[in-house]
Amino acid sequence: MNKQHVIVIGSSMAGLLTARILSDHFKNVTVLERDSFTDAPESRKGVPQGRHLHGLLATGGELLDHYFPKFRDELVAQGAVSGDMGETMQWYMDGGYRMKFNWGRQGVSMSRPLIEYTVRKRVMSIPNVKIITNVNVKALISTSDHGRVVGVQFEQRQVDNAPQSLNADLVVDCTGRGSATSKWLEAMGFAKPNENKVEINVGYATCTYRRRPDQKLQLYLITPAAPQEKRMGVLFPIEGDRWIVSMGGLLGDHCPEDPQGFLEFARNLPAPDIYNLLKDAEPLSDIISHKYPANLRRHYEQLTRFPEGYLVLGDAVCSFNPIYGQGMTSAIMQADALNGLITKARSLDGLWRPFFKAAAKVVDMPWQLAVTTDFAYPEVKGAKPTGADFINSYVAKVHRASHNDPVVYAAFLSCMNLFAPPSSLFKPNVLFRVLRDHWQRDNTSRVIQTVNNPANQPSAVQPSA
Ligand SMILES: Cc1cc2nc3c(=O)[nH]c(=O)nc-3n(C[C@H](O)[C@H](O)[C@H](O)COP(=O)(O)OP(=O)(O)OC[C@H]3O[C@@H](n4cnc5c(N)ncnc54)[C@H](O)[C@@H]3O)c2cc1C
Q1: Going by fewer Cβ within 10 Å, which terminus of the chain is more open, N or C?
Q2: Nearest Cα to 88, choosing from 74, 107, 60, 72?
Q3: What does the mean pLDDT of the chain come to?
Q4: Predicted model pTM
Q5: Average of per-residue pLDDT across 440-454
Q6: Is there a single domain that holds both residue 187 and residue 124?
């Protein structure tokens, strides 16, 4: 198999992980990135979402430790905050706080620029990987019959913008949601992948604040009970003794960018924790916002014809409602799936077929979780998964049971962190506890209603004649 040179387009999370993995299989890896970097964790134009809070799921963290040994320790050494995910999350949902317990898996909380910077430094230290910045990839180069991609055409910004080309045995598109692959495929005479859009109209606003040494290191989450609530707020401790808070809502219930409106939004969240912390906190940044119109999945796995020597990975395949914090982990898991396949493959020819199947399998779970949950709102538009209403009604009971049942909460955390499929929430021991909690609540609320019903109040004592 010819594995002399691979080109990865885009050096965000998907591109960097892909470069790391392919450096084990190819003689040379070239990453082409439109932006430029400094040697510091900074947000950049090509990743505008990087200024907003980014949670890293435990699966993603564990895979990062696998590909970059002691990765999470390196984050912590730079000021990131880590702790057991069951103990450090102060999470309000569905009328109460989820209980705290030792789940046994570590979470790490840092800014998005820090995680990307730390991955990038590790990738740049791999001898056979080269990252070229200020390079805008404009087109693919293919054989005359278009059956094989053999390189890319690009413009080197800040030089002369003159078109240049680079050849490779494999090209991987990691350019994110805005990927031009559909357009490039059509230009080469291939069908573009079917797109599945689930419209949610999410609007975020984010600000960072000074964190005082006396403040408890917790992750605060206030998430909506659908369909009556649409707003959420998340506040995490990050490096540099800061808090980062992102607040927003679905279906147009967006968080304003002006300081007064921002604080008012926090005050109107279903629980007071974030407001209480923000009202006296010192802001360290402007408030910035981001609109996210729709979950978007491109079904490459359904294509029957595709050029050899070409793959697509990361948000370019699937971009999820950011509220669920799945995007980086999905990209890491897709890159991990590629590692498994390329280790076993005897040829790069035909690799696209098993790879897109494997990527679809990775994406299925977070996609199902995200869009099923989104469809708890009747206004959400798109292809509704079968059984979504039934699942949502059951998962609402899971949320309530996790206020006081560690077995149910552990099952939910495993599912949310992509260790276990949503079906695991229906395992008999979880199902029993969820239904028991539901019946107990139902009975308690029936007793309260009975006691509060005036017809059932004892009549006033009549004075004796
Ligand atoms: C508001 C918001 C909040 C989010 N929060 C979370 C979260 O909490 N947790 C989580 O896991 N995920 C979150 N995500 C998703 C996460 O940001 C992405 O899943 C993650 O960045 C992986 O994306 P990617 O690497 O595939 O693409 P991107 O991050 O979009 O990167 C694409 C890269 O390609 C480069 N590029 C683009 N076109 C070209 C070109 N023609 N030539 C050269 N380079 C090019 C860009 O400059 C960029 O570096 C959030 C997303 C949004 C929008």
Answers
A1: C
A2: 107
A3: 95
A4: 0.95
A5: 69
A6: yes
Domain holding 299: CATH number? Answer: 3.50.50.60
- Residue 292: CB within 6 Å of ligand 1? yes
**Structural domain total, the chain:** 2
Q: Beta-strand (E) ranges in 303-396?
A: 310-312, 318-319
> Domain check: are 344 and 400 in the same one?
no
Phi-psi category of 418—alpha, beta or left, where left has phi over 0 and alpha has psi -120 to 50?
A: left
SS3 category, 256: coil
Cα torsion at 204, 324, 37, 29 (round to 10°)?
-150
Q: What is the CA radius of gyration of the chain?
A: 25
- What six digits make up the tokens of 421? 């499929």
**Using one digit for the tens of pLDDT, what is the confidence trace for 155-171?**
988 777 788 999 999 99
Residue 396 belongs to a domain: yes
Tell me whether residue 422 is in a domain.
yes
- Distance, CA of 35 to chain centre: 22
Rounded Cα distance between 457 and 315, Å, is 60
Q: Is the CB of 329 under 6 A from ligand 1?
A: yes
Confirm if 307 and 190 have CB atoms less than 8 A apart. yes
Question: Residue with the nearest Cα to atom 3 of ligand 1?
Answer: 322
For residue 379, pLDDT over 60 is answered with yes
For the CA of 319, the nearest atom of ligand 1: 19
Q: In 3-state terms, what secondary structure has residue 272? A: coil
Give the Å distance between the CA of 13 and the centre of ligand 1. 7
Decide whether any atom of ligand 1 lies within 6 Å of the 176 Cβ. yes
Nearest to 365 by CA among 311, 428, 297: 297
365 with 420, same domain: the answer is no
pLDDT tens digits along 382-417: 999 999 999 999 999 999 999 999 999 999 999 999
Instruction: Look at ligand 1, atom 53, and give the residue with the nearest C-alpha.
Output: 49
Cα of 188 vs centre of ligand 1, distance in Å, is 26
Q: Can you give the pLDDT at residue 442?
A: 81
**334 and 439: one domain?**
no
Q: For residue 406, give its domain range.
A: 388-452
Range list of H helices, 130-272: 181-187, 259-267
Token pair of 229 as six digits: 């609530």
Comparison of pLDDT for 64 and 443, the residue scoring more: 64
